[in-house]
UniProtKB/TrEMBL annotation:
GO terms for molecular function: transferase activity. The keyword Amino-acid biosynthesis does not apply. Pfam families: GST_C_2 (PF13410), GST_N_2 (PF13409). This is Glutathione S-transferase family protein. It comes from Bradyrhizobium frederickii.
Length: 196
C-alpha cells in the first residue's frame, strides 16, 4: 500500500508509526500540502477532501482520516483492546483528539513553526482550549498509565502525535508531569527518539 503523507503532520506520522510498529509493508509518498499537492486532479480523485494522510491499498481502494486509517490498519492487533468497552473508550479518546485537542495544539504549532507567527499573534481562545486539552490529559494520566486500558493503544499513539511537540506551539509542558511521563513511555514503546 501507499501512504500519502506530509512528514511535518502529526496526523500523517501516526499512520507511519502504526505501520512501522506493526511491520506493515508500505511505501511512503511525501506530499507537500503547502505547495498544493493535495489539490491536483490526481490526488482529488483519490481523496475528494484533498487531505493527507490518505492510504491507497493494492486493490485500488483508498482510505482517509488519520484515526480511521490507524483503526483499520491495527484492527487485529494488540493496539486495539480486546475488551469491547475498553475499545470503545479508546474510540472516545480518538474522537476527542480530533475535536478537542488537534484543532488547538496542532493549529498553534502550525502558525508558529510553519507560518512564522509570533506567540503574541496566536488566538487566545485557541491557546486556552489547548491548555484545557492538556489539563484533561494530565487529570486522566495522573490516575492511569495510558488512555484505554493497561497498555498502549491507538488512543495513545493518536494523542502522542501533537502532544509531544506541543511546546513548538507555545504550550508549556513543565506543569504536566503525568503527560511528560506518558510521552516518554509511548515514545519508548514506538522506538521514537524524544521530541526536541
Amino acid at each position: 500500500m501507499k501512504v500519502y503523507g506530509d512528514s511535518n503532520s502529526g496526523n500523517c506520522l501516526k499512520v507511519k508509526w502504526v505501520c512501522d510498529h506493526l511491520a506493515l509493508p508500505y511505501r511512503w509518498v511525501e506530499i507537500d500540502t503547502r505547495k498544493g499537492e493535495t489539490r491536483t486532479p490526481q490526488f482529488l480523485e483519490m481523496n475528494g477532501a484533498g487531505q493527507v494522510p490518505t492510504v491507497a491499498f493494492d486493490d485500488g481502494r483508498t482510505l482517509a482520516q488519520s484515526n480511521a486509517i490507524i483503526r483499520y490498519l491495527a484492527r487485529d492487533s494488540a493496539l486495539v483492546p480486546r475488551d469491547a468497552f475498553t475499545a470503545a473508550k479508546m474510540d472516545e479518546w480518538l474522537f476527542w483528539e480530533q475535536y478537542s485537542h488537534e484543532p488547538y495544539i496542532a493549529v498553534c504549532r502550525f502558525l508558529l513553526v510553519y507560518l512564522g507567527k509570533d506567540a503574541s499573534e496566536l488566538d487566545p481562545e485557541k491557546v486556552k482550549r489547548g491548555y484545557a486539552a492538556l489539563d484533561r490529559m494530565e487529570q486522566h494520566l495522573a490516575a492511569s498509565r495510558f488512555f484505554a486500558g493497561e497498555a498502549v493503544s491507538l488512543a495513545d499513539i493518536s494523542l502522542l502525535a501533537y502532544t509531544r511537540v506541543a511546546h513548538e506551539g507555545g504550550f508549556d509542558l513543565d506543569r504536566y508531569a503525568s503527560v511528560r511521563r506518558w510521552i516518554g513511555d509511548v515514545e519508548a514503546f514506538l522506538g521514537l527518539p524524544p521530541a526536541r
